[in-house]
């Protein structure tokens, strides 16, 4: 993160702290990947939660993310700065909706989500370019998560042994 942007955010500010993925977005290379990795401990903590709790948290993370990301982007005076990674955290949760959380599914889901987030196939790329503010920051990653989730469900239907791969 360039110094002028860094000076506009504070890890003591809870909005910035969350939007920057608990600080993972401040890593100077591949912040989106590290932001996605920041979701893994939360996913592991929620692995045995009732499905309705997982859904509720996913919805909460997605809705509150619009505010967190939008406010932090406004404070930084940069739309969707790479260090804003709460959208990756929420996208990872969408990836694992109704997917059993095991070591192999975490690995596969992480890779598939990152591929969709980086490559931005249609309609993700269109949304990324046309929507602004907190909604635009969040929506492309939520859609990447939905597409990754669909891939996970197709894969688990075709190869149910992926759940216990190693």
UniProtKB/TrEMBL annotation:
Q: In which pathway does it act?
A: Phospholipid metabolism; phosphatidylglycerol biosynthesis; phosphatidylglycerol from CDP-diacylglycerol: step 2/2
Q: What is its EC number?
A: 3.1.3.27
Q: Name one GO cellular component term.
A: plasma membrane
Q: Which residues form the YutG/PgpA domain?
A: 18-154
Task: Tell me the Pfam families matching this sequence.
Answer: PgpA
Q: Which reaction does it catalyse?
A: a 1,2-diacyl-sn-glycero-3-phospho-(1'-sn-glycero-3'-phosphate) + H2O = a 1,2-diacyl-sn-glycero-3-phospho-(1'-sn-glycerol) + phosphate
Which cofactors does this protein require?
A: Mg(2+)
Q: Keywords, A to Z? A: Cell inner membrane, Cell membrane, Hydrolase, Lipid degradation, Lipid metabolism, Magnesium, Membrane, Metal-binding, Phospholipid degradation, Phospholipid metabolism, Transmembrane, Transmembrane helix
Which chain positions lie within coiled-coil regions?
none
Extract the SUPFAM superfamilies matched here.
YutG-like (SSF101307)
Primary location group: membrane
The listed locations are: Cell inner membrane
One GO biological process term:
phosphatidylglycerol biosynthetic process
Bilayer-spanning residue ranges: 20-45, 51-69, 89-113, 142-165
Per the record, membrane topology reads: Multi-pass membrane protein
One Gene Ontology molecular-function label: metal ion binding
> What functional role does this protein have?
Lipid phosphatase which dephosphorylates phosphatidylglycerophosphate (PGP) to phosphatidylglycerol (PG).
Q: What is this protein called?
A: Phosphatidylglycerophosphatase A
Task: Please give the organism.
Answer: Alteromonas profundi
């Amino acid at each position: 993160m360039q110094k002028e942007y860094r000076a506009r955010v504070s890890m003591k500010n809870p909005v910035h702290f969350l939007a920057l993925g608990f600080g993972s977005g401040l890593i100077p290379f591949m912040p989106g990947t590290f932001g996605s990795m920041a979701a893994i401990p939360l996913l592991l903590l929620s692995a045995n939660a009732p499905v309705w709790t997982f859904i509720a948290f996913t919805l909460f993370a997605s809705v509150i993310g619009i505010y967190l990301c939008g406010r932090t982007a406004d404070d930084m005076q940069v739309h969707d700065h790479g260090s804003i990674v709460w959208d990756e955290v929420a996208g990872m949760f969408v990836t694992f909706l109704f997917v059993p959380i095991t070591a192999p599914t975490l690995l596969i889901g992480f890779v598939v989500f990152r591929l969709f987030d980086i490559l931005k196939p249609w309609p993700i790329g269109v949304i990324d370019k046309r929507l602004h503010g907190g909604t635009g920051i969040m929506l492309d990653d939520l859609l990447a998560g939905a597409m990754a989730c669909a891939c996970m469900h197709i894969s688990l239907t075709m190869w149910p042994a992926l759940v216990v791969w190693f």
